[in-house]
């Protein structure tokens, strides 16, 4: 396998993208949309607004702009080649591609790429005209033709393959981002010796093969396993759908638990927020998660694995992931890897030449040592034993030192004849100043992985010059900064912890800490304690114990995030009378004591050095009394302190930035002294249910985030600064805002969900500066009667269950609205006609509007993609819905007054008509005709569900059933053709009309009720996997005759026809008996296990249907069909041909999953071969049922 070159840093230029386009064609439509989309992604784009006429010479400024751009995007349109200006631009762009490696991306906007390549068709007409003008300049014409031909041969985007322009623009912008700014760039790509490891691993990974492969990288600590994995990921990540690098699994699993790591992994891979992942059970994964994972080609790196449980939790089985996925694991323990990977790659020490080069780069900033240092360098190599980490640390330590200093360092190393790396690393520690040593030991023992700015605040409170000290540690290669977090190599951390352990200055071992806390002897050496209380037993705490620790600077008592509290762990007071702690060191800068067992703080604790006070879920009743002055305090967290009724005077704590008082359910007031906290940024009063009033907060100009969610008794007018950015008021008792707060200029997020008492909003909600969210959620505001005045580019408006009785005609002025939700508006009967002016509206939800009986015409909703009318009383759907070309979801569930369905848009992908009991007619021809165009590969689920439409006419039912076989055949031929186009894409780049050279995932569902169609109750069709595959669900008790291979029971034998290897796919069929009642929320799937037989042995292959979610309780036999494309298993086809397989055995199994797994009985089964001729293959006859 050829090696992959190292990543390179993108060149520094003035523009990211240069747009070349024909103004008269696209300036006011597609080009302007694309330019806006690029700007939203902060892509610096050059666009020419001068609009000069054809024939003028191209300006030098434009030529310079092309040269100064990282990428050029050429928008070929009908009249592009009729402009000398455009053609000269194109020539310059192609020259820059050749001379400076500029990236070029062509877009064929409503023109055929072959017409651009050959200058034919409408595109060629314009070019012929400009050729006539310059017929005497043959050289110029030749340059134009060459540029057009080369540009048209590049991988690009064909607009004809996209449903609407917004989807095309989004795909182009994402591709540009990927080209300009790779998601992963490793600064270690050029380290000596790295390419040898990368190429060896590439050979083992065999990225092009179809199987799922687990690879282990094994070696000692510091040998470079993590670095190799990082560089490998940076070079191959773009070959996969999604990728994730989970670092420091050994440490993070101990701290946060495997459950948390699993959620992080799946959240990254599936692009779902952690809180939205339904992973409630450790040993059970939801079928939807497995189904989504199994369709993705993913790259996962699990770094520093030290337990087989970690492998099982994070990458349990190969079948979790889609074909061609790769999982890479690094570990020091080969035994752990042997239990979970397919191949283990051992990382040895660097070769002599590479080791010397690495040392020289760190010590001399060049590739070779100076002459006077050659022998000294060899002595360093002898001590470091070719371990990269040791070489980097020693090289940095010896940098800019004289030969005599090198001799001194090397002589000191002689006292460690075993050359243990930990001892070598300690040499760098010995040269630190005392301030730097303290910082290093604190990071090694307590703060590894923590935010650098927060750590600096804590250390500065201890009197340590934190910023300077951390920079010094960074220079010595003792710490690194990753995303502003302090990180440290395991070996270096172990060295630091060993030093602290010997000196007794920092405690983190639970047993040692418990011994210390129960022994009344002077412990002046102790400067910090870090205890996970979930790992200790019950300890009787002496209220005077900390008087023996006068030098304590950091005290951290916490519980692991996922460890439940119980009676067997934590602190017990020595006696019921010991309700007050006697002493705490006034040197404390960090006091984090969860479940603090005392009622107050020691009276002698003046807090002058305290930066963070975190007493969450404690018994504290008051913090301090009198005139104590915690001037350095920045973070105050009292979350869940149920017995806290009041806060002390805060006027002296002028540096406070964060106050967290959530779930302080006895808190009755906030002191007016909070108005003195001019640096306060965050105030959390979540569920302070006894809080009735708030002080005036208007003068707190730094306050950016205010959380008052579930403050149910807080009803007074809210006085907040205009500069507030995040305002959370869910389920609060708030009735109105103060008259002084009528304009919120900087508001970025506002949530007022279920504010049932709210009568009005600020006079003007200005959302022009919204950054992260363009959302206004007023769901459940039952007393809000008047539609608010909203300024700014609001995109999502939720008015579900509000008291607003009607939409005003002014709704049309929310021109940026993309989503409008009005669920369960029981009084809503009609909509204003101005609703049709919302040209950008994509999702319109009117579910549960039980009195809505009429819709206005939909002619102006050009962008509408999803329309939800379920539960309404509509009798008809406007006939102009057929012209809404972008509509892909129409939900009419439980519209029991609906009489019929009009002709639907041809690109509709989901129609839900369940329980539309009055529907008699359904003009479905357009939607079904659209299935014939499935070669365009829309990566969505297709669903046409008519369940319980009991009055549906016989003709409609018969047509749908008859259509099933034809669709399977169309898909078989269409997807096979496109798949061949995709696999012929040698660069793995964009094929015209096929983004990324991949064929997207595809699902289709069609459902209809039984009746006069013989023995049919419903048909459901689905496609799955990377090329379209199809599942069909119905309710006959027999197999259709067009299944040539059939069997009674759950299996049958097959004799394949000659030359059957050219088959395009398999259609499977099974009749399932539902003699066991299932819940309608259950999921189930069917598997066909094919045993192929040959003279050289056999092979077993499983073909599985999609997971099917029950919409209703099934009580009779049901027939299921699904389709697998043969091109998804090319290695199987090669094996079948090589072994001349012509017989086999098919066994079908069905399983339902709900609260329990249930095996279902297969009564009959069948198989059809699609795309080959002969006995057993699909024919042209119509489907019949015996």
UniProtKB/TrEMBL annotation:
Q: What is this protein called?
A: ADP-ribosyl cyclase/cyclic ADP-ribose hydrolase
User: Which BP terms in the Gene Ontology apply to this protein?
Assistant: defense response; signal transduction
Could you tell me what reaction this enzyme catalyses?
A: NAD(+) + H2O = ADP-D-ribose + nicotinamide + H(+)
Keyword NAD among UniProt keywords: yes
Superkingdom classification of source: Eukaryota
Q: Which InterPro entries match?
A: Apaf_helical (IPR042197), C-JID (IPR045344), Disease_R_plants (IPR044974), LRR_dom_sf (IPR032675), NB-ARC (IPR002182), P-loop_NTPase (IPR027417), RPS4B/Roq1-like_LRR (IPR058546), TIR_dom (IPR000157)
EC number(s) on record?
3.2.2.6
Q: Show the taxonomic lineage.
A: Eukaryota, Viridiplantae, Streptophyta, Embryophyta, Tracheophyta
Which Pfam families does the UniProt entry name for this protein?
C-JID (PF20160), LRR_13 (PF23286), NB-ARC (PF00931), TIR (PF01582), WHD_ROQ1 (PF23282)
Against SMART domains, the record matches this protein to: TIR (SM00255)
Which terms are listed as keywords in the entry? Hydrolase, Leucine-rich repeat, NAD, Plant defense, Repeat
Q: Which GO terms describe its molecular function?
A: ADP binding; NAD+ nucleosidase activity, cyclic ADP-ribose generating
Domain TIR: from-to ranges: 13-180
